[in-house]
Design goal:
The chain is an alpha+beta fold. 40% of the residues lie in helices and 24% in strands.
Protein backbone atom coordinates (compact mmCIF):
# COMPACT_ATOMS: atom_id res chain seq x y z
CA UNK A 1 0.00 0.00 0.00
CA UNK A 2 1.28 3.51 -0.82
CA UNK A 3 2.65 5.40 2.17
CA UNK A 4 0.40 8.40 1.46
CA UNK A 5 -2.69 6.18 1.26
CA UNK A 6 -1.78 4.52 4.56
CA UNK A 7 -1.40 7.96 6.15
CA UNK A 8 -4.78 9.02 4.75
CA UNK A 9 -6.45 5.90 6.16
CA UNK A 10 -4.85 6.55 9.55
CA UNK A 11 -6.18 10.11 9.57
CA UNK A 12 -9.68 8.80 8.82
CA UNK A 13 -9.40 6.17 11.57
CA UNK A 14 -8.28 8.78 14.10
CA UNK A 15 -10.98 11.35 13.36
CA UNK A 16 -13.61 11.37 10.57
CA UNK A 17 -13.69 15.20 10.45
CA UNK A 18 -11.49 17.75 8.65
CA UNK A 19 -9.49 15.00 6.96
CA UNK A 20 -8.54 17.02 3.87
CA UNK A 21 -7.19 19.92 5.95
CA UNK A 22 -5.19 17.65 8.23
CA UNK A 23 -3.81 15.66 5.30
CA UNK A 24 -2.82 18.83 3.43
CA UNK A 25 -0.95 20.16 6.45
CA UNK A 26 0.83 16.86 7.04
CA UNK A 27 1.93 16.40 3.41
CA UNK A 28 2.63 20.05 2.71
CA UNK A 29 0.21 20.13 -0.22
CA UNK A 30 -2.79 22.29 -1.09
CA UNK A 31 -6.27 21.55 0.24
CA UNK A 32 -7.35 20.78 -3.33
CA UNK A 33 -4.56 18.20 -3.74
CA UNK A 34 -5.53 16.55 -0.46
CA UNK A 35 -9.18 16.49 -1.52
CA UNK A 36 -8.14 14.81 -4.77
CA UNK A 37 -6.44 12.06 -2.76
CA UNK A 38 -9.61 11.60 -0.75
CA UNK A 39 -11.70 11.33 -3.91
CA UNK A 40 -9.29 8.77 -5.33
CA UNK A 41 -9.58 6.67 -2.15
CA UNK A 42 -13.37 6.88 -2.30
CA UNK A 43 -13.38 5.70 -5.92
CA UNK A 44 -11.01 2.87 -4.97
CA UNK A 45 -13.60 1.72 -2.43
CA UNK A 46 -11.45 2.01 0.70
CA UNK A 47 -13.13 4.96 2.43
CA UNK A 48 -16.69 6.31 2.64
CA UNK A 49 -18.02 9.87 2.74
CA UNK A 50 -21.23 11.12 4.33
CA UNK A 51 -22.65 14.64 4.67
CA UNK A 52 -21.80 17.90 2.98
CA UNK A 53 -19.60 20.92 3.55
CA UNK A 54 -18.41 21.36 7.13
CA UNK A 55 -20.50 18.35 8.15
CA UNK A 56 -18.76 15.84 5.89
CA UNK A 57 -17.53 12.70 7.63
CA UNK A 58 -15.21 10.03 6.27
CA UNK A 59 -14.96 6.41 7.36
CA UNK A 60 -13.01 3.24 6.58
CA UNK A 61 -15.08 1.06 4.26
CA UNK A 62 -15.57 -2.53 5.31
CA UNK A 63 -14.15 -4.64 2.49
CA UNK A 64 -14.63 -8.05 4.06
CA UNK A 65 -16.99 -9.28 6.79
CA UNK A 66 -17.89 -12.78 7.95
CA UNK A 67 -19.64 -14.13 11.02
CA UNK A 68 -21.23 -17.37 12.10
CA UNK A 69 -22.62 -19.06 15.21
CA UNK A 70 -21.68 -22.64 16.07
CA UNK A 71 -22.92 -25.20 18.59
CA UNK A 72 -20.13 -25.37 21.17
CA UNK A 73 -20.13 -29.13 21.80
CA UNK A 74 -17.82 -30.86 19.33
CA UNK A 75 -16.66 -27.61 17.74
CA UNK A 76 -13.14 -27.61 16.29
CA UNK A 77 -11.30 -24.30 16.20
CA UNK A 78 -9.32 -25.49 13.17
CA UNK A 79 -12.53 -26.00 11.22
CA UNK A 80 -13.72 -22.48 12.05
CA UNK A 81 -10.36 -21.08 10.96
CA UNK A 82 -10.22 -23.00 7.69
CA UNK A 83 -13.83 -22.57 6.62
CA UNK A 84 -14.78 -19.10 7.89
CA UNK A 85 -11.75 -17.00 8.79
CA UNK A 86 -8.77 -17.97 6.62
CA UNK A 87 -10.56 -17.21 3.32
CA UNK A 88 -11.32 -13.67 4.56
CA UNK A 89 -7.61 -13.11 5.32
CA UNK A 90 -6.11 -14.94 2.36
CA UNK A 91 -4.54 -11.88 0.74
CA UNK A 92 -2.99 -10.13 3.76
CA UNK A 93 0.75 -10.63 4.52
CA UNK A 94 1.73 -13.98 6.00
CA UNK A 95 3.01 -12.59 9.32
CA UNK A 96 -0.30 -10.89 10.07
CA UNK A 97 -2.23 -13.97 8.96
CA UNK A 98 -0.15 -16.17 11.28
CA UNK A 99 -0.97 -13.89 14.22
CA UNK A 100 -4.67 -14.18 13.41
CA UNK A 101 -4.43 -17.96 13.13
CA UNK A 102 -2.81 -18.18 16.55
CA UNK A 103 -5.06 -15.71 18.38
CA UNK A 104 -8.39 -16.75 16.92
CA UNK A 105 -7.85 -20.49 17.31
CA UNK A 106 -6.73 -19.93 20.93
CA UNK A 107 -9.79 -17.82 21.78
CA UNK A 108 -12.23 -20.17 20.05
CA UNK A 109 -10.69 -23.12 21.88
CA UNK A 110 -11.03 -21.27 25.20
CA UNK A 111 -14.72 -20.69 24.53
CA UNK A 112 -15.22 -24.35 23.57
CA UNK A 113 -13.38 -25.79 26.57
CA UNK A 114 -14.27 -23.32 29.34
CA UNK A 115 -17.48 -21.39 28.70
CA UNK A 116 -20.14 -24.10 29.01
CA UNK A 117 -22.14 -22.02 26.51
CA UNK A 118 -24.59 -23.59 24.08
CA UNK A 119 -23.24 -21.54 21.18
CA UNK A 120 -19.98 -19.85 20.17
CA UNK A 121 -20.23 -16.78 17.93
CA UNK A 122 -17.27 -15.81 15.72
CA UNK A 123 -16.91 -12.77 13.48
CA UNK A 124 -14.34 -10.82 11.49
CA UNK A 125 -14.50 -7.38 9.88
CA UNK A 126 -11.74 -5.97 7.70
CA UNK A 127 -10.98 -2.62 6.10
CA UNK A 128 -7.96 -1.42 4.10
CA UNK A 129 -6.02 -0.49 7.26
CA UNK A 130 -6.77 -3.12 9.90
CA UNK A 131 -8.83 -6.17 10.78
CA UNK A 132 -11.03 -6.68 13.81
CA UNK A 133 -12.38 -10.02 15.03
CA UNK A 134 -14.36 -11.29 17.98
CA UNK A 135 -15.28 -14.51 19.75
CA UNK A 136 -18.39 -14.48 21.94
CA UNK A 137 -20.00 -17.10 24.17
CA UNK A 138 -23.10 -17.14 26.37
CA UNK A 139 -21.54 -18.86 29.40
CA UNK A 140 -21.14 -17.71 32.98
CA UNK A 141 -18.39 -15.23 32.07
CA UNK A 142 -14.62 -15.52 32.27
CA UNK A 143 -14.15 -13.19 35.23
CA UNK A 144 -16.80 -14.90 37.35
CA UNK A 145 -15.35 -18.30 36.45
CA UNK A 146 -11.85 -17.26 37.61
CA UNK A 147 -13.28 -15.60 40.70
CA UNK A 148 -14.99 -18.87 41.64
CA UNK A 149 -11.94 -21.00 40.83
CA UNK A 150 -9.57 -18.91 42.97
CA UNK A 151 -12.13 -17.91 45.61
CA UNK A 152 -11.48 -14.24 44.90
CA UNK A 153 -13.41 -11.51 46.73
CA UNK A 154 -14.09 -9.44 43.62
CA UNK A 155 -14.31 -10.39 39.92
CA UNK A 156 -12.01 -7.45 39.12
CA UNK A 157 -9.20 -9.43 40.71
CA UNK A 158 -9.61 -12.05 37.97
CA UNK A 159 -8.30 -9.56 35.41
CA UNK A 160 -5.05 -9.26 37.35
CA UNK A 161 -4.64 -13.04 37.26
CA UNK A 162 -5.17 -13.10 33.49
CA UNK A 163 -2.62 -10.30 33.09
CA UNK A 164 0.00 -12.35 34.94
CA UNK A 165 -0.43 -15.40 32.72
CA UNK A 166 0.01 -19.09 33.56
CA UNK A 167 -3.51 -19.34 34.92
CA UNK A 168 -6.14 -21.80 33.74
CA UNK A 169 -9.18 -23.38 35.35
CA UNK A 170 -8.31 -26.61 33.50
CA UNK A 171 -4.56 -27.24 34.07
CA UNK A 172 -4.75 -30.82 32.78
CA UNK A 173 -5.64 -29.58 29.29
CA UNK A 174 -4.43 -25.97 29.14
CA UNK A 175 -1.19 -24.12 29.90
CA UNK A 176 -2.78 -20.79 30.79
CA UNK A 177 -0.72 -19.01 28.13
CA UNK A 178 -3.30 -18.34 25.40
CA UNK A 179 -4.88 -15.13 26.68
CA UNK A 180 -1.56 -13.75 27.96
CA UNK A 181 0.26 -14.12 24.64
CA UNK A 182 -2.77 -13.18 22.54
CA UNK A 183 -3.08 -9.93 24.47
CA UNK A 184 0.56 -9.13 23.64
CA UNK A 185 0.58 -10.07 19.96
CA UNK A 186 -2.39 -7.95 18.82
CA UNK A 187 -2.55 -4.16 18.51
CA UNK A 188 -5.76 -4.12 20.55
CA UNK A 189 -7.10 -6.89 22.77
CA UNK A 190 -10.33 -6.49 24.78
CA UNK A 191 -12.30 -8.77 27.07
CA UNK A 192 -15.88 -7.87 28.05
CA UNK A 193 -17.82 -9.94 30.54
CA UNK A 194 -20.47 -9.01 33.07
CA UNK A 195 -19.97 -5.36 33.95
CA UNK A 196 -16.22 -5.45 33.35
CA UNK A 197 -14.26 -4.44 30.27
CA UNK A 198 -10.50 -5.02 30.13
CA UNK A 199 -8.75 -3.15 27.30
CA UNK A 200 -5.15 -3.71 26.17
CA UNK A 201 -3.94 -1.24 23.53
CA UNK A 202 -0.35 -1.88 22.45
CA UNK A 203 1.98 0.83 23.75
CA UNK A 204 -0.62 2.24 26.14
CA UNK A 205 -1.63 1.57 29.74
CA UNK A 206 -4.01 -1.36 30.25
CA UNK A 207 -7.42 -0.10 31.31
CA UNK A 208 -10.26 -1.65 33.32
CA UNK A 209 -13.73 -0.17 32.82
CA UNK A 210 -16.79 -0.94 34.90
CA UNK A 211 -19.97 -0.54 32.86
CA UNK A 212 -23.48 0.15 34.12
CA UNK A 213 -25.06 -2.53 31.92
CA UNK A 214 -24.21 -6.18 32.46
CA UNK A 215 -23.33 -8.24 29.38
CA UNK A 216 -23.88 -12.01 29.55
CA UNK A 217 -21.11 -14.43 28.68
CA UNK A 218 -17.73 -13.29 27.38
CA UNK A 219 -16.65 -11.37 24.29
CA UNK A 220 -12.98 -11.28 23.29
CA UNK A 221 -12.17 -8.67 20.62
CA UNK A 222 -8.89 -8.31 18.72
CA UNK A 223 -7.48 -5.83 16.22
CA UNK A 224 -4.34 -5.93 14.07
CA UNK A 225 -2.96 -3.75 11.29
CA UNK A 226 -3.08 -5.61 7.99
CA UNK A 227 0.59 -4.81 7.34
CA UNK A 228 1.77 -5.71 10.87
CA UNK A 229 5.23 -7.30 10.96
CA UNK A 230 4.94 -8.55 14.53
CA UNK A 231 5.35 -12.31 14.90
CA UNK A 232 4.21 -14.73 17.56
CA UNK A 233 7.79 -15.98 17.87
CA UNK A 234 9.20 -12.60 18.87
CA UNK A 235 6.46 -12.18 21.49
CA UNK A 236 7.12 -15.67 22.90
CA UNK A 237 10.86 -15.00 23.00
CA UNK A 238 10.32 -11.75 24.90
CA UNK A 239 8.87 -13.69 27.82
CA UNK A 240 11.15 -16.74 27.69
CA UNK A 241 14.25 -17.26 29.79
CA UNK A 242 17.55 -16.88 27.87
CA UNK A 243 18.31 -20.02 25.86
CA UNK A 244 15.10 -21.63 27.10
CA UNK A 245 11.68 -22.08 25.53
CA UNK A 246 9.65 -21.84 28.73
CA UNK A 247 7.25 -19.06 29.75
CA UNK A 248 9.58 -17.70 32.44
CA UNK A 249 8.95 -13.95 32.45
CA UNK A 250 5.79 -11.92 32.88
CA UNK A 251 4.83 -8.26 32.80
CA UNK A 252 2.25 -7.22 35.39
CA UNK A 253 0.44 -3.84 35.26
CA UNK A 254 0.35 -3.03 38.99
CA UNK A 255 -2.50 -0.57 38.50
CA UNK A 256 -4.85 -3.53 37.88
CA UNK A 257 -4.48 -4.34 41.60
CA UNK A 258 -5.71 -0.84 42.43
CA UNK A 259 -9.50 -0.68 42.31
CA UNK A 260 -11.13 2.66 41.60
CA UNK A 261 -10.85 5.03 44.54
CA UNK A 262 -8.30 2.84 46.35
CA UNK A 263 -4.61 3.22 47.08
CA UNK A 264 -2.16 0.33 47.29
CA UNK A 265 -1.34 0.42 50.99
CA UNK A 266 -2.12 -2.94 52.62
CA UNK A 267 -0.40 -6.29 52.89
CA UNK A 268 -3.53 -8.06 51.68
CA UNK A 269 -3.41 -6.05 48.43
CA UNK A 270 0.26 -6.97 48.06
CA UNK A 271 -0.50 -10.66 48.63
CA UNK A 272 -3.14 -10.56 45.89
CA UNK A 273 -0.65 -8.91 43.57
CA UNK A 274 2.12 -11.45 44.22
CA UNK A 275 -0.11 -14.53 44.10
CA UNK A 276 1.51 -17.06 41.70
CA UNK A 277 4.60 -14.86 41.09
CA UNK A 278 6.71 -17.81 42.24
CA UNK A 279 5.83 -19.62 38.99
CA UNK A 280 8.06 -17.19 37.09
CA UNK A 281 11.79 -16.57 37.05
CA UNK A 282 11.28 -12.85 36.40
CA UNK A 283 8.30 -10.60 37.16
CA UNK A 284 8.38 -7.10 35.66
CA UNK A 285 6.15 -4.83 37.76
CA UNK A 286 4.92 -1.90 35.68
CA UNK A 287 3.90 0.98 37.99
CA UNK A 288 2.47 3.21 35.23
CA UNK A 289 -0.64 4.90 36.64
CA UNK A 290 0.31 4.27 40.28
CA UNK A 291 1.17 7.53 42.05
CA UNK A 292 2.07 6.10 45.44
CA UNK A 293 2.16 2.90 47.49
CA UNK A 294 2.11 2.30 51.23
CA UNK A 295 4.99 1.06 53.37
CA UNK A 296 3.21 -2.20 54.27
CA UNK A 297 2.41 -2.90 50.59
CA UNK A 298 6.01 -2.29 49.51
CA UNK A 299 7.42 -4.34 52.36
CA UNK A 300 5.16 -7.31 51.59
CA UNK A 301 6.14 -7.33 47.90
CA UNK A 302 9.83 -6.44 47.97
CA UNK A 303 10.93 -7.94 51.31
CA UNK A 304 8.48 -10.58 52.54
CA UNK A 305 7.68 -12.16 49.16
CA UNK A 306 11.29 -11.83 47.97
CA UNK A 307 12.59 -13.51 51.13
CA UNK A 308 10.19 -16.43 50.67
CA UNK A 309 10.92 -16.75 46.94
CA UNK A 310 14.56 -15.84 46.24
CA UNK A 311 14.48 -17.55 42.82
CA UNK A 312 11.95 -15.05 41.49
CA UNK A 313 13.44 -11.73 40.42
CA UNK A 314 11.19 -8.67 40.77
CA UNK A 315 11.90 -5.83 38.34
CA UNK A 316 9.92 -2.61 39.05
CA UNK A 317 9.66 -0.11 36.17
CA UNK A 318 8.00 3.25 35.46
CA UNK A 319 7.97 4.30 39.12
CA UNK A 320 6.93 7.73 40.35
CA UNK A 321 9.35 9.26 42.92
CA UNK A 322 7.12 8.34 45.91
CA UNK A 323 6.79 4.75 44.67
CA UNK A 324 10.53 4.47 44.05
CA UNK A 325 11.27 5.72 47.57
CA UNK A 326 9.03 3.05 49.13
CA UNK A 327 10.50 0.28 46.96
CA UNK A 328 14.05 1.38 47.84
CA UNK A 329 13.15 1.40 51.54
CA UNK A 330 11.75 -2.16 51.37
CA UNK A 331 14.78 -3.41 49.44
CA UNK A 332 17.13 -1.81 51.95
CA UNK A 333 15.32 -3.71 54.71
CA UNK A 334 15.70 -6.94 52.69
CA UNK A 335 19.43 -6.33 52.31
CA UNK A 336 19.82 -5.51 56.01
CA UNK A 337 18.22 -8.78 57.10
CA UNK A 338 20.97 -10.62 55.25
Amino acid sequence: MEAHLTQLLQFVAQDPRNVAARLAESLGVTRQAASARLLKAIKAGVITREGRGAGVRYGLRTIQEVQHSYPRVGLSEDRVWQQLLAPALADIPEKARDVWRYGLTEMINNAVDHSGSEMVHVGLRRNALFTQAWVTDDGEGIFLRIQRALNLFDPREAILELAKGKFTTDPANHSGEGIFFSSKVFDVFDIQSGKLHFAHDDGKVDVLFERSAEAPGTTVSMQLANDSTRTTREVFDKFAAPEEYTFAKTLVPVRLAQHEGEKLVSRSQAKRLTMRFERFQTVVLDFVGVAEIGQAFADEVFRVFQTAHPNTTLVPINMEPDVKAMVSRARAALKAQG
